Amino acid sequence: MRIRPFTLIFLLGALGGAAFLGLSTYDFIQHLDREVHDLVCTSILGNDAEAAGEEPGCKVALMSPYSSTFRTLVWGGIPISLPGLSVFCFLVYRGLDLVLGRREDDRDATFFVFLASIIPAIASMVMGYISYSELGTACKLCVGTYISSAVTLLGAAGAWRSAGSPGVVEDIGLGGSELADVPAGGSGLTGLLVGAATLGGFTAVPMLTYMILSPDFSKYIGGCGTLPKPEDTNKIMVALDENPQGKAAVEVLDPLCPSCLGFERRLEASGMAGQLDRKVVLFPLDNACNWNVSSAMHPGACTISEAVICAEGRATAVIDWAFENQQAIREASAIDPKAAERMVLEKFPDLKSCVGGNAVKTKLNRSMRWVVSNELPVLTPQLYVEGVKLCDADTDLGLDWALSRLLAQGGKLPQAEGKAQ
Prior knowledge:
The longest helix has 29 residues, at about 105-135. This protein has helices at about 5-30, 40-45, 50, 55-65, 80-100, 105-135, 140-160, 190-215, 260-270, 300-310, 315-325, 325-335, 340-345, 360-375, 400-410; strands at about 1-5, 70, 80, 170, 240, 245-255, 275-280, 380-385, 390. The chain contains 15 helices and nine strands. Helices cover about 50% and strands about 5% of the residues. Helix 5 (about 80-100) packs antiparallel against helix 8, helix 6 (about 105-135) crosses helix 8 (about 190-215) and helix 10 (about 300-310) crosses helix 14 (about 360-375). The chain is an alpha+beta fold. A five-stranded mixed beta sheet has the order 5-7-6-8-9. The protein has a two-stranded antiparallel ribbon with strand order 1-4. The chain has two domains: about 1-215, VKOR domain (de novo design (two linked rop proteins)), CATH 1.20.1440; about 240-410, Glutaredoxin (3-Layer(aba) Sandwich).
């Protein structure tokens, strides 16, 4: 059996896209047990980011608010890689239809394939832009998908333009003329409508099946503990964008913690931050001030935490600046312990009389004693809504689903109280 070069390029691109998105979907699905797993994406060609002490691009992309949709309906949402995988599988199907049905000279059939190939190309451009502008990183499987989308579109465009002309063909040795009896489908507008309906089925059925089979973790809502001593007697909590109408929430935070940055982005994207009246308890994972850790997991975090406390009403601005410059601050502070102080005072010079002083050091010390008195784990971020903890396993992929339900029950514990296992 013979196949035109552009059709071959199209099929190879579609198969590549299906493979990359299949692995991405697998990486997402294995986290549905609410545990942390190694990513296939990270293991491909090694992981230079993690070796340098940074968050791997694959993990950043997976845990970002852009990795899935319908996040309040099912835990984690439906991974966007799933409909993408369905589209590429559909394109493979249509490519085989062109070859086995001997329809490579059918202008209508090749035109529809070209139109369908535009979908993953546009999606790749949008996601590539988001990855660059919002996440500041890229995952390897994502890049592979972008390239596959471009190759698929190129092959589809070439197949459409060469349809009806002699062209150059290659023998790929499939053999068996009986395979040519594949139904050719319609042509013209009818063919486009039939093809669009088929594409809709290819994407809708897997998504509906995913929603039906997704696990229900309702039993964990409100079952991961409470604050035994929530009172702020020493006034150590820092207010974030006060919202008296929102539900009282306490967030345990390290301003140089990459996970805290990711959590903040997911919370903002969820649209539920506006339903909370948040106060921050600073808990820097830096042994320069925190006796609960044996090393500086996030060098410079103590100094930046002091700056947040000193800023008072402008604490949000300092935290936002620290989030945007986390890596630079940590790297500089690992070399020079005074680097964080220089950097924060260069940005906020009016804090000079406060940062490093005995008063702010005492307040930060009391902040950590508050964490200890409430028997909290040495972990950031943590979120408590009206004293009830959002489970640690729900602070990433399950944030939208779990927090919406915790807010709905008003921060109250379920009738059968007790910590979830």
